[in-house]
Amino acid sequence: MARVVVDVMLKPEILDPQGQAVQRALPRLGFEGIADVRQGKRFELEVEGPVDEAALARVHEMAETFLANTVIEDFTVRVEDETRTGAGS
């Protein structure tokens, strides 16, 4: 099985109150030098069979109709490399 990742982010022109709250909190926690934070969603899909153009088209359709609100969000679809590293890296 292969992993396909869908990253969903608010469009640049849409305000991101959660991202702004994180950005304001970072200096108080000792993390300086961060000019902006945008918060989004990540979906990891384990796809049965080969990840060919047809499979990616299905995932793209899924993202467009269900995973993202395309009025206010953009999304990207990509196949993730099988050689993943551990959490926090």
Task: Describe the model.
- With 89 residues, the protein is an alpha+beta fold.
- The protein is 30% helix and 27% strand.
- It has 2 helices and 3 strands, in the order βαβαβ.
- A 3-stranded antiparallel beta sheet has the order 2-1-3, with helices on one face.
- The longest helix has 15 residues, at 53-67.
- It is elongated, with a radius of gyration of 16 Å.
Descriptive key words:
single chain, 89 residues, alpha+beta, 3 strands, 27% strand, elongated
Q: What's the quick description here?
A:
This protein is an alpha+beta fold. Helices cover 30% and strands 27% of the residues. It is elongated and about 45 Å long.
End-to-end span in angstroms?
23 Å
The fraction of residues assigned to DSSP E strands is 25-35%
Dominant shape: elongated
Q: Which regions have little confidence, pLDDT < 50, spanning 5+ residues?
A: none
